[in-house]
Design a protein that fits this description.
With 441 residues, the protein is of the alpha+beta class. It is 65% helix and 13% strand. The protein has ten helices and six strands.
Length: 441
């Protein structure tokens, strides 16, 4: 039976305070989001509801007591012997009951406790999802900012190339084709700039929605960027961890426990129940009774005993209920196996995706240096007349595209690190803090 992990991360997020309007670091934005995110708040409310249901189930093991009171007035006429009476009755009674043997109630209480465990696991999963969603929005903004900066730098470079082509055409050292090619490339980059500005605007809105801070200003990565390595560097180790720690797997295992308890509870339908009962009542007749009219009397009655209830036949309801719960138990077992397989596959995909991303970063870093060298060579060749204007423009485009791809690949590696830990079920604030330490502060 799986036990719930301590929700250190959950408690840390729940106690986060309101932050200034301009949150800068990733950790600050995560803490801000925990106070406004509706999905996380819903999971927290679900835990509170589960604790309330567990308390209701516990009531089935505790004693119950009740107080009743009444007043009545009767009009009685008897012909022989002739009696004309108007007796008045005042009564007060208290009763109590303590279950002695009710196996279904004990199982229901255990189910309630497992329901609390399930809600805690679901809250843990919602917390990890919150960390990834905020991080995704955070790095989406940084990637959009880098893209816009790269496009603007490319526009400036193309503008310089356009001006040079026009000057060369005026002095007769180049053809009108160079100017038109440069103008076409400048117009294309301008269109890309407009698209990049709009994309940045949309990404900032997504970050504001995720964090509740409309003017959040994410900090960029330190340069040169340092990327973390996955530990352990073994996909089998990550899959093994996911099988034990991933919230979806833990939730499916608890659901199976609850289904098995439901079968046990259904089987108790044939068992007897035993209760200890006690009561005390007082009845007062201020005008007497029919047999003793006019005589003020009072009756006190105290009782204690044990009540046994043994079900004999219920139209096969118990047997069919057991049949139903056994089928649901088998479904829960199949769901658990399906979840384990899906989580194992997702963990492998996250691990290999992270490894691929790290390889892409290394390749793009090398490509950036090669593109810079190629641009310098084309610029020099253009100056001496062995290269044409379109060669320089293509080299510029290749360099800036490589820089954009490199920036995006770095962000993907950082997000991949967090998503791998989420897939394994171990993502917490410390992981976010380690990524936060890579930002330029």
């Amino acid at each position: 039976m799986l036990l719930p992990r301590p929700l250190t991360l959950t408690l840390a997020l729940a106690s986060a305070c309101a932050l200034p309007v301009h949150a800068q670091s990733l950790l600050e934005l995560v803490q801000a989001a925990s106070t406004t995110d509706s999905s996380w708040q819903a999971a927290r409310a679900q835990l509170d509801a589960a604790e309330g249901r567990a308390g209701q189930a516990r009531a089935g093991l505790l004693p119950s007591a009740g107080l009743s009171a009444g007043w009545s007035l009767a009009d009685t006429h008897v012909t022989r012997p002739p009696v004309d009476a108007h007796p008045q009755t005042q009564n007060l009674a208290i009763s109590a009951s303590q279950p002695l043997y009710r196996p279904a109630n004990g199982i229901a209480y255990t189910q309630g406790q497992r329901g609390v465990d399930l809600a805690r696991v679901q809250l843990d999963g919602a917390t990890q999802d919150l960390l990834v969603r905020v991080s995704q929005a955070y790095f989406d903004v940084l990637a959009a900012e880098d893209t816009l900066a790269s496009v603007q730098a490319q526009k400036a470079a193309v503008g310089e190339q356009l001006a040079a082509a026009k000057r060369n055409f005026e002095v007769g050292t180049s053809t009108i084709t160079d100017s038109r090619e440069a103008q076409a490339r400048f117009d294309l980059v301008r269109a890309q700039e407009i698209a990049a500005e709009n994309d940045l605007r949309v990404k900032r809105l997504a970050l504001a929605q995720a964090t509740g801070l409309p003017n959040a200003d994410p900090l960029p990565l330190q340069q040169p960027a340092r990327l973390p390595e996955p530990t352990p560097q073994d996909v089998a180790g990550w899959v093994e961890t996911a099988q034990a720690e991933q919230p979806q797997v833990r939730a499916a295992a608890i659901a199976l426990d609850i289904a098995q308890l439901e079968t046990r509870k259904a089987e108790t339908g044939h068992l007897p129940t035993v209760d200890l009962q006690a009561g005390y009542s007082v009845a007062r007749y201020p005008r007497g009774t029919v047999t003793a009219p006019g005589v003020n009397s009072r009756t006190n009655n105290a009782s204690v005993g044990v009540a046994l209830n043994l079900p004999l036949f219920a139209g096969f309801a118990v047997q069919n209920r057991v049949r139903e719960t056994l089928a649901l138990e088998e479904k829960a077992r199949a769901d658990l196996e399906t979840t384990r397989r899906a989580i194992a596959q997702a963990t492998r995909a996250a691990y290999f995706g992270l490894e691929s991303g790290r390889g892409q970063v290394s390749a793009l870093e090398a490509a950036e240096q090669s593109s810079k060298s190629a641009l310098e060579a084309n610029q020099l060749g253009y100056q001496v007349g062995v290269r044409i204007n379109i060669d320089v423009l293509n080299a510029q485009s290749q360099l800036y595209q490589t820089q954009r791809d490199l920036a995006q690949a770095r962000y993907n590696v950082l997000l991949g690190t967090l998503k791998l830990r989420q897939a394994a079920g171990t993502l917490n604030l410390d992981d976010v803090r380690r990524v936060d330490n890579l930002l330029a502060k």
